[in-house]
Design a protein that fits this description.
It is a single chain. It contains eight helices and 18 strands. Helix content is 26%, strand content 24%. It has two domains: 15-184, no CATH class; 197-412, DNA integrity scanning protein, DisA, N-terminal domain (YojJ-like (1), CATH 3.40.1700.10. Helix 5 (216-232) packs parallel to helix 7 and helix 6 (262-270) runs antiparallel to helix 7. It has 416 residues and is of the alpha+beta class. The strands form two sheets. The protein has a nine-stranded mixed β-sheet with strand order 2-3-5-4-1-6-7-8-9. A nine-stranded mixed β-sheet has the order 11-13-12-10-16-17-18-14-15, with helices on both faces.
């Protein structure tokens, strides 16, 4: 792809308040990442400019009249088709458990805006990305990269454009940077996984089930994935995560459902348990060596894939008008739920993860969807309510136990 040679104004000391072009993100990325990411080794600013600018312009395009998010895994000079988790034996069967696995194109494709837009059709899955490598000839589309078990120290960068004009850069589960409509977000925290009040509320929901402590990370990741699906379909929506096993739904809710406990059972297995208690047998978590370790990895991979399919289904339910309500074990209890809307509710917007610093939130400037989400949060203490506008921006509303007011967090353009 040719260099677009944009000359953006230099970023100010407060980039979140100045409109900038994508190349202005590079010094911010360098500062936040340092030299810790292998895919950035010996990668010039000019290459990163080409990468981010192309993804930005691809995010503004549609394919055959439909909009698809652009999802890129930037591998840089790393050309391995399979990346195993750190510490795993390199002779282990790679498809049992992997960090990244590549479906490589026989012939490399040109790195270009039209190619990125076209590939958006097949990278809609939560863990599928267009893989971009850097060769002696420049950037190229090498294939499709599927993300597996990827906790900490990710050698790749993920650049996502979930809605037009918005870019999110992630490394593993860490959101490094968010760029929305010409502005760099002042903070890169993810309210679901970063330590704070929202995360603690979700962990409290998880503890109301039979899940063990080791399942909390999988629980948070599942919630995050469903919220991402809601943001990605572009229709907006409301997602409720209730602390109750049988959350009460408004009378006249469109579709009540009786959950079969599938998601909870999957999370229990991923925790190393079928009944909520740790297994001590040969496939227990932490088993090392030989067939037992391979079996555990295979089973975890299979159950992770099933959980991912359920996440996609739950995300699809949020596209219907009304709210999608999950119980404490993330089981579906209702969708298309018409929530009541109260007229007078005190709402404060959090300026930090704990919600200790707040300012008044002008609910009157938002639509019915936000007012309904806040009304439910006010009536159901401990419920975490995510609300997405049709163009992607996300908010998270919560009234903590013992509090008399709802606090709302800006959850980012798309949570990555």
């Amino acid at each position: 792809m040719r260099n677009l040679n944009l000359d953006p104004p230099p970023p100010s000391s407060a980039p979140g308040h100045q409109q900038v072009f994508p190349p202005a993100l590079i010094p911010v990325l360098r500062e936040r990442l340092g030299n810790s990411v292998p895919c950035l080794a010996n990668v010039s600013d000019a290459v990163l400019t080409e990468l981010l600018t192309a993804i930005f312009f691809a995010s503004l395009e549609t394919h055959e009249g439909a909009y698809y998010p652009v999802r890129v895994a930037f591998a840089g000079p790393l050309i391995a088709d399979v990346i195993l988790p750190e510490g795993d034996a390199q002779d282990a069967t790679p498809m049992l458990l992997y960090r990244w696995s590549t479906v490589r194109f026989v012939h490399e494709r040109a790195f270009s805006v039209p190619e990125l837009v076209r590939l958006g059709v097949v990278t809609r899955s939560e863990r599928m990305y267009a893989k971009v490598e850097l060769t002696s000839r420049g950037l190229s589309l090498a294939g499709l990269a599927r993300e597996g078990s990827n906790e900490g120290g990710d050698p790749y960068l993920k650049i996502l454009a979930q809605s037009p004009g918005c870019l999110t850069v992630e490394r593993g589960e860490e959101r490094v940077l968010e760029y929305t409509h010409g502005r760099i977000a002042a903070a890169a925290e993810d309210v679901i996984v970063a330590p704070g009040r929202v995360r603690r509320a979700l962990e409290a929901c998880a503890r109301n089930t039979d899940l063990g402590e080791d399942a909390l990370a999988d629980y948070l990741s599942t919630v995050r994935a469903v919220v991402r699906e809601m943001a990605a379909h572009g229709r907006g929506g409301i997602l409720v995560v209730s602390p109750d096993a049988q959350p009460r739904l408004p009378v006249g809710a469109a579709y009540h459902t009786q959950d079969d406990g599938t998601m909870g059972k999957l999370l229990q297995f991923l925790d190393g348990s079928a009944t909520g208690q740790k297994q001590s047998g040969p496939v227990a978590r932490g088993a090392r060596g030989g067939a037992a370790a391979h079996l555990r990895r295979f089973l975890r991979s299979a159950f992770s894939n099933e959980a991912e399919r359920l996440v996609t289904q739950l995300g699809g339910f949020t596209a219907m008008d009304g709210a999608t309500v999950l119980d404490s074990a993330l089981g579906l209890r209702g969708f298309g739920v018409v929530l009541p809307v109260a007229r007078e509710i005190e709402v404060m917007e959090a300026l930090d993860l704990e919600g200790e610093h707040v300012e008044p939130f002008e609910l009157s400037t938002r639509g019915t969807r936000h007012r309904a989400a806040v009304t439910y949060a006010d009536a159901s203490a401990g419920s975490v309510v995510f609300v997405a506008s049709h163009d992607g921006p996300l908010s998270c509303a919560l009234r903590s136990e013992g509090s008399d007011r709802v606090v709302i967090w800006r959850a980012g353009g798309s949570l990555g």
